[in-house]
Amino acid sequence: MTFLTLFSGINVYAQDYKAPELWDASGNVKQIKYNSKDPLLTNKNLKFDKNGKLKNSMIVYDNAGFPTGIDINFGPIAMSAEFQFNNDDLIVAKLIRKKPNPFDLKVDYMFENGRMVKESALNKADGKTITYNYEFQSYELDKNGNWISRVVDLTVTDGSDTKTQRYIERREIKYWE
To answer: Which of 32, 78, 116, 169 could form a Cys-Cys staple with 46, CB 3.0–4.6 A?
Structure first.
């Protein structure tokens, strides 16, 4: 943990690791709780330690504290993930699960002015491919500049079947003091 001493004598810490960046959040994030219809968002309650690492995870970090990936291979589970950042913005995530229920998922992110505006995911599983195209807009931000509400336009294409939906995605963010 890095401590910054302010002239007023108050100690404030900055997080050494940046796991919250995987969920388009920054700062001293303690917890993110999602209320979302996102079919790819499986963990809707994320907890981070004071250093900025995702709790109960095996994520590997680079020297700057950004998550670079994960590799798990024990017992019935075999999966890996790779994350790529550009100027503090996550631009690509690749996830491969070999067992159980194998799949290959590649997600590309597009940012404008530091805010995620598009996300495209290509999921290959069971011999078929499903694409998910998200567009994000109408952001509501908290006092730390992280979004807490946004409008999502999602288009899912499964073979020749395409479905589009619009919904409001919300999240509650708690911070370390």
So the answer is: 32
Contact 155, 133 (CB under 8 A): yes
User: Which residues, other chains included, contact 85 with Cβ-Cβ below 8 Å and sequence gap of 6+?
Assistant: 21, 66, 91
* Distance separating alpha carbons of residues 12 and 27, to the nearest angstrom: 12
Parallel/antiparallel/unpaired status of strands 2-5 and 128-141: unpaired
On whether the CB atoms of residues 31 and 47 are closer than 8 A, the answer is yes
pLDDT per residue, tens digit, the chain (177 aa), is 222 222 223 333 457 888 899 889 999 999 999 999 999 888 889 999 999 999 988 889 999 898 999 888 777 778 888 989 887 777 888 888 887 788 899 999 998 888 899 999 999 988 899 999 999 999 999 999 999 999 999 999 999 999 999 999 999 999 998
User: What's the gap between Cα 168 and its chain centre?
Assistant: 17
pTM for this model (two decimals): 0.81
